[in-house]
């Protein structure tokens, strides 16, 4: 998927997202935010925040920043923050996740829910999410990942060429996430109702000490 396709696809999805894909993926957001509420520090970055469906779920005391490339999706997130008085939302910014405009180690937790199979250059997005996460911080990546065998795997491979129309890749490989340097996989959870979506919990590994000089 290229970035122009992201823009046009999510401009089309925005008005119907909450009632369609958004409704079908509620358990992923609930499980992800429950984990962060229980285990993450207060400064949280949600990458690909979309219409902000997860924003009301955060516990008081968290400070959540959301970024998204689509102006249409972000406008809906901003309207939700306003309508529901979500004072824990520190900001919503239009941004390409391939170049996050935050200093290194800015956040205690980074969340990417139903977005890593959508972005162009997901390896670059993963590297950026690791960069802005502090050592010891947690990352949650909730997504559908490719199956290797069975009828569903064949359907996923059949749908793969339609990524630009659908708005996501149906055959996305989990190793793109788990193989990213600088993070370690802590836990994998299959999500209800049928394990279609998976929650990956990862932890930022300590930055290697600088080599001694002299
Ligand atoms: C399927 S929606 C998921 C939204 C939300 N996380 C949720 O769970 O409902 C994927 C989102 O990723 C955003 N996105 C795609 N590519 C992006 C990029 N390069 N930078 C930032 N956001 C991007 C899209 O605009 C869209 O809002």
Automatic annotation (TrEMBL):
GO terms for molecular function: S-adenosylmethionine-dependent methyltransferase activity. It holds the Pfam family Methyltransf_11. Keywords: Methyltransferase, Transferase. Residues 45-141 form the Methyltransferase type domain. One of its GO terms (biological process) is methylation. The keyword Transferase applies. This is SAM-dependent methyltransferase. It comes from Pseudooceanicola nanhaiensis. The lineage of its organism: Bacteria, Pseudomonadati, Pseudomonadota, Alphaproteobacteria, Rhodobacterales.
């Amino acid at each position: 998927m290229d970035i122009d396709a992201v823009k046009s696809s999510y401009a089309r999805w925005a008005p119907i997202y909450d009632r369609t894909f958004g409704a079908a993926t509620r358990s992923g957001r609930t499980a992800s935010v429950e984990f962060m509420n229980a285990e993450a520090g207060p400064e949280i970055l949600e990458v690909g925040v979309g219409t902000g469906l997860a924003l009301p779920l955060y516990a008081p005391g968290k400070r959540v920043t959301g970024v998204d490339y689509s102006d249409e999706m972000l406008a809906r997130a901003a309207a939700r923050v306003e309508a529901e008085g979500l004072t824990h939302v520190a900001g919503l910014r239009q941004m390409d996740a391939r170049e996050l405009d935050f200093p290194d180690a800015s956040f205690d937790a980074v969340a990417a829910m139903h977005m890593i199979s959508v972005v162009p250059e997901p390896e670059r997005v993963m590297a950026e999410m690791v960069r802005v996460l502090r050592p010891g911080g947690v990352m949650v990546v909730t997504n559908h990942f490719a199956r290797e065998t069975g009828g569903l795997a064949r359907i996923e491979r059949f749908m793969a060429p339609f990524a630009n129309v659908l708005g996501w890749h149906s055959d996305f490989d989990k190793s793109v996430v788990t193989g990213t340097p600088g993070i370690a996989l802590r836990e994998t959870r299959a999500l209800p109702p049928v394990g279609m979506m998976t929650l990956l919990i990862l932890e930022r590994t300590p930055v290697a000490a600088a080599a001694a000089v002299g």
